[in-house]
Write a structure and sequence with these properties.
Keywords: Disulfide bond, Endoplasmic reticulum, Lipid transport, Signal, Transport. The chain is of the alpha+beta class. It has a domain at 273-337 and 344-355. It has 23 helices and 27 strands. Strands 6-7-8-9-10-11-1-2-3-4-5-12 form a 12-stranded antiparallel beta sheet, with helices on both faces. The N and C termini lie far apart (92 Å).
């Protein structure tokens, strides 16, 4: 059953709906929004003679008023002195007051009759009133259609009162949004919708509804906004009403009343907003251009302009996008490529593909920026992957780009699979290509390219391939395969994988280079090791090459000091005196492994780790710096910069370590950024290349990554039960500049490696309620600029050589802002902005005590 109307009676209701946007924990006074009040007359038009609960009901809205939600002084009230007609316009107001019909059967709305020609926003507001007629007195769960979509509803009925709870996460609507795949960088949402009905004499006496939607940035939960929507529908009196119409069925009765009335659907329809007086994309670009020049990339104005440009790009056509690409200055163009690619619309992708010429090797910088922006895409499409597949099949001018295309395709496969798109035709095609890739070629660079693509894809089917390459004769293959295995979920690391990795570490089948064995040790110790595995690792210390003993010792101590998952089993194994004795644990050397906290807050914990392995002669073999972010159980690999060097012993007439006698001279750097492995960069390769660079080494660092990245990207339309809509846009942009370098001075017998990270971050959350005739909204945001330098100085004039590591964080500003805005199409508007700034002091990160002692000696001796 459901509510029943009496014949020949007119029910007079007062109706108000209000909607406001506020901070998550704000008061009504600080909020922005408006209230629409009106009278609603309700009467029965027709009832099925055989079923009293099958009714056609007429509703008519009158006496419409629009006011701000909170009391405002006159100056700040844009609605002061206006009437509903002056705000809405004559035609919208007359449409609003035109009667409409609802077909109600057993308390469920079967159809909503109004006029096709009416503006969508008016029909939606009427649907909002109609949603308050759906009620059932008995307790239970049902699926209902109303203005919010098709939702699961829970009813609880107690003596004349019914509570209706709408389970909003079950609602299916026509409008879809998107969100960032990474939880650490993402946005969390909480929503509730409850309506309380009081019934009297079989019909509704009152209905009070409250719905809230709260969105917050996971990395900083205080950056949040909420939308609150309330509806009250109260019976104020009854009068004698019109008589019931005659007719056999609903359709016939509706037709006889007004031939233009039509069943226009009960769910909300999309509302197209015409932006009046908004700047075109090109005008917008001209206003932002200066902020995107390279000189401004480490200031917060760069990511702010980048985010604003993306919003504008998302509404633009392909031709408009091309116009901006063609007019940008040579220096600002790479940043424009970042923005166009990050906007992730079909039009911007088409424009990029037309603009870039992959057969031209001179376009390397722009091509790579496009590829990296694809790799960092927040919600990539199958079309984006297909475009990269087509590029990889065509002629590519630069071998670096050829490698980058395949490596980034791996990252896109991972993201598409995460969203349930693993069976899309293009994904299947690319999976086949990268899984078969390593065995399909003898070219060393190509094998590495495919292995790096697999490292990005994290496909479970790649584990056997990576396991096979972990035992390869080529050191570079082993390192990539082992570091890739370390990125997998521990549950996927089978006993077979563990046996292989242990064989590599213990050199059961062949001699391996030190950095390969170190990478194998990392996999063993981070994959839930058994007591025997740990014991065997401990027993190996003492019989390893000189510097590796020290590295492994440091690694074990770091696991204990940082309470890593393996610490329990390590403690247990160390109770055995054979594996834990003075001889083993007193090895000297300069290699080390250390982890620590960078920042801890209630929302995110960021940690860093620094591992450095030297060769016996004092030259750097591998340095690895990592930064992780963890939030509510999810982990993000924010940054990894690995510098590798080999075969440099001949420079200082030293003897290479075991297994490294025939290595060619090489130094390079590999970066992984926000879970995406980028193409490695080579400093020099081969003796002649090394010698020419040695004498021309200016010590200027080589750029590894530079650009703008869209980190957080959440967009949705929130359909409220009142018929109104709120749109939420949360975006986070990062301007980043990472460079690294290595210089060697034979004269001073000293080498220096440096990794410099510069960044500026802006995160904004915008929630707007746009009714076409009045608009209100709020923006919450925070921004910061930071720099982090990691420098290692080595003096190898004596043994054990001196190593000093420095990791410095400069003092950085941190600002938060809250802006509320209200405007009318006439241009009348009110904006209020509050902000607070603070300076976070810089610091030098404390590495281990041994390092501090070494630094004193290095800097004393260099004076």
């Amino acid at each position: 059953a459901g509510p029943r109307l009496n014949n020949d009676q007119l029910y007079k209701f007062s109706y108000t709906t209000e909607v406001l946007v506020d901070r998550a924990r704000g008061s009504k006074e600080g909020s922005t929004g408006y209230r629409i009040s009106s009278d609603v007359d309700v009467n029965l038009v027709w009832r099925d003679p055989s079923n009293k609960d099958d009714q056609l009901i007429r509703l008519a809205i009158s006496n419409v008023r629009i006011d701000p939600v909170a009391h405002r002084p006159e100056k700040k009230n844009i609605l002061h002195g206006s009437t509903a007609e002056s705000i809405m316009g004559k035609s919208k107001l007359s449409a609003m007051t035109k009667p409409f019909l609802v077909h109600l059967k057993n308390g469920k709305a079967k159809a909503f009759y109004s006029y096709w020609a009416e503006p969508a926003i008016i029909k939606n507001l009427k649907r909002g009133v109609a949603s308050l007629l759906q009620v059932q007195p008995n307790t239970g769960k049902v699926v209902e259609n109303d203005v919010s979509g098709r939702c699961t509803i829970e009813y609880k009925g107690v003596k004349g009162q019914v509570t209706r709870t709408k389970l909003l996460d079950t609602c299916k609507t026509a409008e879809t949004g998107f969100t960032t795949h990474s939880q650490v960088l993402g946005v969390s949402k909480k929503a509730s919708s409850v309506t309380v009905f009081t019934l009297e004499d079989g019909f509704i006496k009152s209905a009070v509804a409250e719905e809230t939607h709260t969105l917050s940035v996971n990395a900083r939960r205080s950056t949040a906004a909420k939308v609150v929507s309330r509806q009250t529908f109260t019976l104020v009196g009854k009068e004698a009403g019109p008589a019931e119409a005659a007719g056999k069925d609903v359709a016939g009765v509706v037709k006889s009343l007004d031939a233009k009335l039509a069943a226009v659907g009960i769910m909300a329809e999309k509302v197209k907003y015409q932006c009046k007086g908004c700047p075109s994309l090109f005008e917008h670009w001209q206003a932002q251009e200066k902020q995107l020049e390279p000189a401004n990339l480490s200031k917060v104005t760069a990511p702010r302009s980048f985010l604003a440009l993306i919003q504008s790009l998302r509404k633009a056509s392909k031709d408009e996008v091309l116009k901006v690409l063609k007019s940008a200055s040579k220096t600002a163009l790479p940043q424009v490529v970042d923005a166009v690619t990050s906007s992730q619309t079909a039009a911007s992708l088409d424009a990029m593909l037309e603009f870039l010429n992959f057969t031209d090797a001179k376009g390397l910088v722009l091509q790579e920026r496009f590829l990296y922006a694809c790799g960092f895409a927040s919600h990539p499409t199958e079309q984006m992957l297909k475009s990269l597949l087509d590029i990889s099949k065509g002629k590519i001018g630069s071998t670096d780009i050829k490698e980058s295309v395949v490596i980034i395709m791996g990252a896109l496969v991972h993201k598409l699979c995460q969203k349930g798109g693993c069976d899309l035709p293009t994904v299947v095609q690319v999976k086949k290509m990268i899984l078969e890739g390593p065995d399909s070629t003898q070219v060393e660079a190509d094998v590495q390219m495919y292995l790096l693509a697999l490292k990005n894809s994290l496909l479970p089917e790649a584990i056997p391939i990576l396991t096979k390459y972990a035992e390869s004769e080529v050191g570079a293959y082993c390192t990539i395969a082992l570091t890739a295995l370390q990125r997998y979920d521990i549950g996927l690391i089978t006993d077979e994988v563990k046996h292989t990795v242990n064989r590599v570490y213990h050199q059961n089948r062949r001699i391996y280079e030190k950095n390969v064995r170190a990478a194998a040790a990392d996999v063993i110790l981070s994959s839930n090791p058994s007591y025997m595995e740990v014991k065997n690792v401990l027993l190996s210390i003492g019989s390893l090459p000189h510097e590796m003993n020290k590295y492994m010792l440091s690694k074990i101590q770091d696991i204990l000091h940082f309470e890593m998952p393996a610490s329990k089993v390590v403690r247990k194994a160390m109770k055995d005196m054979i594996s834990h004795n003075y001889d083993r644990f007193s090895k000297v050397g300069s290699s080390s492994a250390y982890s620590g906290f960078m920042a801890q807050s209630a929302d995110v914990t960021s940690t860093y780790s620094l591992d450095i392995l030297y060769s016996g002669s004092g030259i750097l073999r591998r340095s690895n710096m990592n930064i992780f972010g963890a939030s509510k159980g999810a982990v993000l690999h924010g940054l990894q910069v690995a510098i590798e060097a080999q075969g440099l012993e001949s420079l200082i007439a030293a003897t290479p370590d075991e297994g490294e006698e025939d290595l060619e001279s090489f130094a390079g750097m590999s970066a992984l950024l926000f879970d995406v492995q980028l193409r490695p960069v080579t400093f020099f390769k081969g003796y002649s290349d090394l010698m020419s660079k040695m004498f021309s080494m200016s010590g200027e660092p080589m750029n590894v990554v530079k650009g703008l990245i869209l980190l957080t990207d959440h967009s949705e339309v929130i359909q409220l039960q009142s018929g109104l809509k709120a749109s939420a846009e949360f975006q986070g942009g990062l301007a980043i500049d990472i460079s690294g370098g290595m210089e060697i001075s034979l004269w001073y017998r000293e080498s220096k490696t440096s990794v410099n990270n510069r960044g500026a971050l802006v995160v904004t959350g915008n929630v707007t309620i746009d009714m076409d005739f009045v608009r209100a909204g709020m923006e919450v945001s925070f921004e910061t600029e930071a720099s982090l330098d990691f420098i290692t100085t080595v003096q190898f004039s004596e043994y054990p050589f001196l190593v000093c590591m420095q990791m410095d964080k400069a003092t950085f500003p941190f600002s938060e802002y809250l802006t509320t805005y209200e405007s009318l199409p006439s241009g009348k508007s009110v904006v209020s902005r509050k902000g607070r700034k603070q300076l976070v002091p810089g610091s030098e990160f404390p590495l281990h005590q041994e390092n501090s002692n070494m630094c004193k000696r290095v800097f004393d001796s260099s004076w």
